[in-house]
Amino acid sequence: MSKCTQTGELSIRRFTEADRALYLSMAEAFYRSPAVLKPIPRSYMERTFDEMMRSDVYVDGFLLEYGGEAAGYMLIAKTFSQEPGGQAIWVEELSVLEPFQGKGLGSEALNWVKARYPDCRRIRLEVEPDNERAIRLYERLGYEKLDYYQMVWDAQ
Q1: For residues 7 and 112, is the Cβ–Cβ distance under 8 A?
Q2: Each residue of 8-54: pLDDT tens digit?
Q3: Alpha-carbon span 29 to 119, nearest angstrom
Q4: Cα(122)–Cα(20) distance, integer angstroms
Q5: Digit-coded pLDDT (tens) for 82-116
Q6: 10 Å Cβ neighbour count for 75?
Q7: What are phi and psi of 85, to 5 degrees?
Q8: Torsion angles phi and psi, residue 97, rounded to 5
Q9: From the DSSP assignment, how many helices (H) and strands (E) are in the chain?
Q10: What does DSSP assign to residue 85?
Q11: I need a surface site. Which of 74, 116, 129, 138 has the fewest CB within 10 A?
Q12: Between vectors from CA 151 to CA 50 and to CA 86, what angle results, nearest 5°?
């Protein structure tokens, strides 16, 4: 059952199987935007959606709606981290569609995350260094720059 939370004019609800095409189109647009370093294969997005439908253990996916229209989406990855001493939430993706930008939806969504995961000890997110608008939003909400050089190994 998907639970819907309303904050102002923004509604946030879990994706359902009926949202598959909508999610995939928004995720593909996100990965063609300057918000990310490089695109990913559609099959990765499909795997993510399948995992969201299977369980909420690793990833939660939420549709943002504004005035009854799809306004964006959010992916939340969950882990435990010793550094903050407990559950860490990674806002893997927060995408607000262009017609809905500047309405405070990003702020509302991030505040909603804090309320949804009250036992969480850290909320973490990534931002491209040239995405000044997003950086200003995150700083205004109390997020701090983490001076780590991240490295990854991806299976081929």
Answers
A1: yes
A2: 689 999 999 999 999 999 999 999 998 888 899 999 999 999 999 99
A3: 32
A4: 29
A5: 999 999 999 999 999 999 999 999 999 999 999 99
A6: 22
A7: 80, 35
A8: -60, 145
A9: 4, 6
A10: T
A11: 129
A12: 65
